[in-house]
Structures are given as C-alpha cells and as structure tokens.
Amino acid sequence: MRIGFIGLGRMGTGMAASLIRAGHQVTVFNRSAGKAAPLLGLGARQAGSIAEACAGEVICTMVADDAALEALACGEHGIVAHLAPGTVHVSCSTISVAMAQRLTGLHAGAGQQFVSAPVFGRPEAAQAAKLFVVAAGAAPALECCAPVFDAIGQRTFVMGTRPADANLVKLSGNFLIAAVIESLGEVLALTGKAGIDAHRYLEMLTSTLFTAPVYQTYGDLIVAGKARPAGFTAPLGLKDVTLALQAAQDLRVPLPLGSLLRDRLLRLVAAGDDQVDWSAIAGLAAQDAGLPARPGPAASG
Amino acid sequence: MRIGFIGLGRMGTGMAASLIRAGHQVTVFNRSAGKAAPLLGLGARQAGSIAEACAGEVICTMVADDAALEALACGEHGIVAHLAPGTVHVSCSTISVAMAQRLTGLHAGAGQQFVSAPVFGRPEAAQAAKLFVVAAGAAPALECCAPVFDAIGQRTFVMGTRPADANLVKLSGNFLIAAVIESLGEVLALTGKAGIDAHRYLEMLTSTLFTAPVYQTYGDLIVAGKARPAGFTAPLGLKDVTLALQAAQDLRVPLPLGSLLRDRLLRLVAAGDDQVDWSAIAGLAAQDAGLPARPGPAASG
Amino acid sequence: MRIGFIGLGRMGTGMAASLIRAGHQVTVFNRSAGKAAPLLGLGARQAGSIAEACAGEVICTMVADDAALEALACGEHGIVAHLAPGTVHVSCSTISVAMAQRLTGLHAGAGQQFVSAPVFGRPEAAQAAKLFVVAAGAAPALECCAPVFDAIGQRTFVMGTRPADANLVKLSGNFLIAAVIESLGEVLALTGKAGIDAHRYLEMLTSTLFTAPVYQTYGDLIVAGKARPAGFTAPLGLKDVTLALQAAQDLRVPLPLGSLLRDRLLRLVAAGDDQVDWSAIAGLAAQDAGLPARPGPAASG
Amino acid sequence: MRIGFIGLGRMGTGMAASLIRAGHQVTVFNRSAGKAAPLLGLGARQAGSIAEACAGEVICTMVADDAALEALACGEHGIVAHLAPGTVHVSCSTISVAMAQRLTGLHAGAGQQFVSAPVFGRPEAAQAAKLFVVAAGAAPALECCAPVFDAIGQRTFVMGTRPADANLVKLSGNFLIAAVIESLGEVLALTGKAGIDAHRYLEMLTSTLFTAPVYQTYGDLIVAGKARPAGFTAPLGLKDVTLALQAAQDLRVPLPLGSLLRDRLLRLVAAGDDQVDWSAIAGLAAQDAGLPARPGPAASG
Question: Where are the domains of chain C?
Fold first, then answer.
C-alpha cells in the first residue's frame, strides 16, 4: 500500500520503519529535514511537501500535540486541502477530543475519511512493531487502515465509529498510568519513611497483586530516582492529563483523582525543569514527607 | 507442629484448614462455638479457652481488627498471659501499626516472640493455600513460623525484623488496591458518559498495560455494578485506608491520594449501607457525572 | 462624558443607569432590543450598531463571557474596527486573562486603549452604584475612565498597568468566595450531623471571627437551602473557577483548593440543573454525609 | 466566687488574670511551679495539689490537648476523684469530641457537672478579657459558670446541652480559619506569580468582600512571610484539623477540604520545624508555584 507518513519523532520513526519493513511503499515528510535519513536508508521516499505525502491511499500523522496537527492538517497547504476524496487520514497522535471532532468534520466536509488511532507503547515498542493500537472511525475507513495497524502494532482495539472515542480512550489510559505513578509514589514515601527496603517492597508488590508491567516499569524508575533522560516528559504528561480533564469537563464528569494528578504534574513543571520524566511526581510525595531526594542519574548528570 | 488457631471467620477457617491438610496438629478456639465444626471434621481439636489454644509451639490469630486482637491478646485471660516463654504469636490480622508495636512490646516483656504475618488473598485463596504472606519479626521467630507460612500461602515475603513493618506493608497494599478502584471508577465514568462500551474498554485495558489481576477483578465488579455480596466491605476498606493514613500521620507523611480514598469510602458508608463492597466507590464517580446507577445483582437482590 | 455601553444584562443595566444618573451622555447597544427600554426612559440614546455605540470617548462592555466579548470586539463590525484612535474600551466583564491579553494587543495595534475593569457586587449593588471596581491599564487610559468608575462604584482599586491583571484579580476573588462556600458547606454538614442548630452556629461564626458579609450572605443561603432563583448560577461559577485554574496553569501555579472547587461545581452542573445558585455546592457536603436535602424554596417551587 | 484554675500557659494565665480582676477568689495549680508567680501577684492563691484546686464552686481547666486533660482529670489524684458532688468542671481546652463525651460520663457518674467552654481568641484577647466563649452543657451547670464566662470573654455563645457540641464547634472554627489561610495562600501564589503587588491586592480584598479580621490578620502574616514566632504552631493546627476529621469520621461526614488542610499541615510539620506558625501552609502554595520563599523575620532570625 502507498502510505504517506508525517511526524518523524522517536515514535513516528519507529512506526514508519515498521510500515516499510511490512512491505509498504512509504513516503515521509518532516519539517526538520534531517530526521528522514534513517528511513530513506530503509527504502522510504522523501516528499517535498505535505501535498506530496498525501498522494497515497493513506496518510498517517504522528505529531506532538493539537497545535502541530492543526498546522499540518488545516490551512491552504494542509492535508485536508490536498487529500483525494475517499482517502484516509489516520491520526496516531495523542490529541484532544475536541481536535479529533473538528478533524472528523473537516475531512467529512471534503469527502475524505478520518480515523483516530493513537497507540500505547514506548519508542522501543514502536521500533519493534509491538504497539497497541486503539482505533475508532467509520468501518470502511478502519478496514482501509487495517494493514497499517497490522504493520505497526501487536494488536488493535476498535473502540467504535466516532474517531474522538479512540482519543478519549488513549487519554484515559495515560490518566491511569499517572494514577499508578502517584499511588506508588505515596506508598513508597510511606514505607520508605518507616525504613522498609524499597526494592524488597516493590518486588513483593509486583510478584503478587500488581503484576502489570506498568507497576514494574514505573516502580523501578521511582526507586532508582531515575527521572532523566525522560521516557515521557512531565510537560507531555501534564498535557495529556489536562486534555483528559478538559474532555471530562466538556462531558460534565468530575475526576478528583485527575485533579490531583494535574496538580502534581503542574507542581513538577513549575519547578522549572521540562526535561524530567513524568514519573518524578512520585518524588513529590517523598519530598513532602521530608525524605531526602533519591539519588539517581539526575544527581550526577 | 502443634499450632493454636484463633479467629474462624472465612479467612481464618481456610487458613486453619490448610494447616491441618499440611499435617499440623491444630487446636482451634473461637468465641462463637459453631464455627469450629468443619475444622473439627478435618481433624482439629477444640480448645475450651485461649489458654488451651496457647499450648502449642505457635499461636496464630486472624481476627477483624485492633479491638478484637486486643481482647484476645491482652487482659488476664489473654494470649500474653498464657503463652509459654519462647513461644511465638503470629498475628495474621490486618491491624494498625501501633497495635503491632504494642504487641511486640508486650510479648517481649513476657519473654515471648511476636511475628506479624498479614496475608493478601480472598477467602478462596485461603481455602486453596494460595495466600501471599507478608511477614516481619526477629529471624528466629520467623524461622519457627516457616512451616505455618508454607502451609497457608504460595509465597512468603519477609519485610524485616520489626513486626509492624509487615502491617504497614499490608495496609499500603490495600491502599494501592483502593487506588486502582478509584482510578477505574473515574475512567469508566468518563468513557461511559462519552458512550464508549465499558466491556470493550476494559478488555483493552486488561489486555495491554493493566494486565494485573486486580484490574480484571475490580474492573469486572465495577462494570457489572456488582457490589453485593461484598468480598470486602466498605467499612473494612475504610478501616484499612484510615489505618494507613494514621500510620502515615504518625510518621509525618502526607498522602493526598489516601485522603481522597478515605473521603470516598466515608461517603459510601455515610449512605448507610455497611454491606456494600468497597469497589462501590467507583459508582460515586459515575453518580457525580450524572450517570444512572449501573444495574447489578444489587438491584434485584 | 459621552459613553457607549454594550451588554444590558442585570449588571450592565444597573451600571448604565448609574452612568446616566451621574450626568453622562450614554448610548446603549444590545443585541436583544427590548432590554434597552428602561434606560431609554432614563435618557439613554439607542445605538443601531456597534459602530454607533463607539462614537463617544469611552466604550464600556459588560457581557457574559469570552465568546460574547470576542463577538463584540473582533470581526469587521466589531469595536476594534470602529473605535477612534486614542479612545478607550473599558471591559467590565469577567473574562479570561488570555482574552484580556489578546484585546490589549488588538487595541494597541489599532492605536486604541484598553482597560480591564471587572467589578465585585450583585445586581442590586450595580443599581445602587455601590460596586467595587478593580481596574488595570495604562495610566492615561485609567485617568480617562475615572469618571466612569466614580459613577458606577463606591471605590476603585487600581491593580497596575497590565489590563489582564485586573481580570486575574477578579477571578481570584470569585475563587475566594467559592472557597468560603465550600468551607461553610463542610462545617455545616459536620455540625448539622452532630445535631447542632445551624442558625445558632452561623450566628456565632458571623458575630466573631467571620464577620465579612460574604459569610453572612452565603451562610444564610446555605442554611435556608435557597438555591433558586440563583444570584449567580453554578455554570457561571464553574466558568470563573475554570478560568482561574486556566490562568494558573498558564503561569504554572498548582491550586489544589481550586481543583476541589472545580470538581464540586462540575458535579453540581452534571446533575443537570443549570439554574441553581453556585452556593448549592454546599449541599453536596451535606448529601455526602447522608443528610437529607435542606428544605428550601427549591423544594416548593 | 471561688474558682480553681489549672493550666497556666499563655491563654490560661490571661484567663485566670481576668477572673481575678473580676473579683473572683482564684486558686491556681500548675505542674510547672514558676508559671503562677504573676497571678499570685494579682491575688491568686496557690494550690499544692489538684485536690486543693478543686475546693471551690467551679474548677476551670485550660490545657494543651486530650492527653494533658486526661492526666489532670482522670486517675486517683485527678479532678473527678476530688470534686465535690454538684460542683462544675469547666473545660476551656480545645479537646476532642470523644474526650468531652468521656468526661461528661465520668463527671455524671461521680455526681458532678461538666461543661465544655472552649474559647476563640489569641493570648492578647485572653489578657484583655475579650475572648469569645462557646459553651455547652446542662442548663444549671451553664448558669453556674456564667460569672466565669462574663469575666473572661466579651460574649458567650451557648450551643446546647451536650458539652461535646461546644468542642465540635470550636474545632470547626479552627477548620474555617485554616481554610481561609489555604485560600489566601493559593490566590497570593497565583497573583504573585503574575507579578501583582501583594499589599495592594490584599488591601483590595480586605476593603471589599473579605473584611473579617481573620483575612487581615492572616493576610498580613502570609505576605510578610512572618511565620515566627508562632501565634499558633503548625502541630497545634494539625492537631485541631485532625480532631475535626476524627469527629467527622465518627459521624460519617466526608470533608474533602479538611483532608486538603490536613495534608498541608502534615507536610509542613514533616519538614521538621514544629515552631512555625500554622499560617506557613500558605508558603507551600507559593513554593509549589516555583516562587522564592518570602523574606520574613524567619530568614533573619
């Protein structure tokens, strides 16, 4: 299949590579030219404009936020202006529900199709084609994208026919991860101040009731005090929790735990370091307990 | 080994049965006489007093709360008064850190040994000898109890030499479970009000990042609106979260998520129904979103 | 002075009347024509367009929210397009910090002046020219507006030269009022469930430490269960607390009490009644305590 | 009237002096002997034991907490053991609801009377006989105490016949003050980070909607960063908020704002300085916003 791909950050590069490896003909476009090099080496073609990237059957976008996607999709040189009728725009970015709804309308108005397909997984999972894809959109559009999803992920979960539902589900997933981080941060502050060994404690948790990888991954990061380099930065975490709360407010759904998570992340970024991993909110619980900062690569870096 | 066992609720009965099946000579005592019958059928002996139950090498207690254990252990007819020097009292109840510290002192003063060994697992796990045991105490005392732990559980985690540490760890574990319930309650209210199918949503979560059994178990309970019969009642959940917060206050550790959980459970019990499962706090998030109550066995029962 | 006035809700009508009574020549404009009648009776002139209302030395606006002010001020038929250079737009509406910043830029770009002057006070205070004016803007512009402020208010507080500062101060004031409501709601739930007489309790509070009118006013509303007709509706309260939190997030300032207030107001509007007074959040504390709803005009109306 | 007085801290000394000045015959007792000297100079008599202090018609106690009052009142050398039948014990201390209920029972069992009469006011108000007295107890007992209340306070508020109600009201009052501090701390962090002058801002608040002395007093302390010497220390504030939450839990009343206040105070004391004024929780909001600590006497002291 001929697939355009825009957005070559760490996630996007891995996903585009997976598409190429699966045998698709991939045309990439990125505002920062240098990022395409590794993919060109794998066989990708380079587009000189958004319009060129839109020439295939599907155009995939994987960018940082609403503003970046708006810049790509809207405006006279954007995707909506250049996509052929019937063609599908698959947005894999973690964007707002409102933006997904707006794009759904814009593409429909232009006789095009829009699918939201945000993914769960870190850059390593993107490279290994092991992402989880959460997709929503009209059935024919989803069918059209199936080869894309098969190439980038280990499993696809279809959430329904409204694209924005996939975005809400993705945001809620990040919300749940942040809740795990906060809860671990609090119990580790409590048991830590009592003098209980953190590794032994964490091993018990992850061997019994909390066997999900998310507890292991974040538990290790917290205990090691390893907030740098960030796998997912605090400002991105704040963005996603804020988007979840915004969607919730639009739907009139109070989320008190969400409010707590937002306040924690906001406090973290207020301290001025935007490069810290979002798991560093766990350190705030320790700090408020009067515990010394955990030594970590951060201290030496 | 000759083991005394006091506290024949659903958990205690299962644990005592496991001890008998493992070949130990078990003498049971319970204030409500009838509860011992099934164990006598398995070969247990019945003690006529606490003192008689204390005649073996180890005395195990598994009761509801601090007050129940205080009534058993202290006072002129209590365990401390009757246990032979060197003998071990293993407390498996979920009690406060302060009570564990007090018992540690009382037993030490009487030349006896005290071990805290609270367990994770539901009554079915107790019956099946599949509990997880979290133990703390002096090394010789723990060694003495090893056959007990082997008989009742699938794995034992030693937390250190201070018995109260095991209690704090147990309380923190229930805290983490409550956090999972609250976080699921909030995302299910959010996605539910958006019209996303709860079963499909939950299946996605538990197939990807949240594979731990605790998400499956509580997710199912919440989606089914199945708060009765309670596996663990709201007042018990409130008790444990309150004990965690009390221990945290004594150590000067603020736990804002803990405060949220306490307020949720308190609101649940304020509604007047003490027989509801603690997972019903998830319904509060739905209620606050203006969603109708989930139909469940509760409605028809 | 020749003053244009746009926005004839309950607040705006009272303010415009005060301007007329103070001897100013007031030209009013309102999208809903009928609202101007009482003011025409007092001597106001009716403008047929925004442009006509902009013909004086100052144009005052008092509308519901950002969207309403944007509709008035921006666009080809808007205030910015028609105001003469050097003329002042005084915005008395409770709008966002971001909108005030945007208007500051737009007016400056057009060689005009912009002043933010939100007010504290209920419609009765507007009628009686007893508002408190919180103003910010460049000194010459503020000087120009002094007669306006003198006519509508009992006192003016200048917050500085950046118009948006006055908006932030106004939002923070509504935040503080909401905090008073929440705190009263919680202590009244607590003492009420203990069986203490609410009137006697409130009289003690407002005679001793909490003599500010805000405690008396909201205390009476809460105890009477009088949430209708609303003096200030829950959706407006939610809007203002949300704007305060939004400004705080832009500045990276966590406000945990603000988060609590937002969640309370969101829960109130999720129940579906947009006509309820924002003080009804106090009833949520009572409800969560399992207390019966306070009888009030609402019940009988 | 012959009045015994026990508890000569700063508050108690002022109250006892007021009683003497009003013409009562006051017998004082204090565990730390030196504290009585100023009162002896005013005409007080010194008791050599609790029993001696109990010889009058009324015995007043004003001590730090439950434990101190329990030590005074219970036990074989305590007040309950020595008070003549029909005599009144007036407890002015800020104690728990549970302790007041217990003392009510103990005194009734001994044929004595018990009145709770906690006070609002700082030590200066105690010296000036300007306290506010919140009293509850049986009508005859209250009548008996009227001369005491008249002597120490500017006004007495009778809350009912159950002594513990007065204690709950007192705790709720401190809760409300803490809420004022927190809300001021948050808005001052917000407006401060925006660059708005704190003095001008505070003057506006306290001249308009928030004229109660509590806003002026705490606003000034916060803006000045004056947390030392403490008028009321953080551990005492934490004690009172905790007692309010404990009473609320016993009554099954969730208080989410109370939980926030408790967490703030707990964080403050976790930092290790027990001599700081409770108003220093306002500094936490500023700290979380990334603002520098306010210079204050603390920095130079």
Answer: 2-161, 168-300
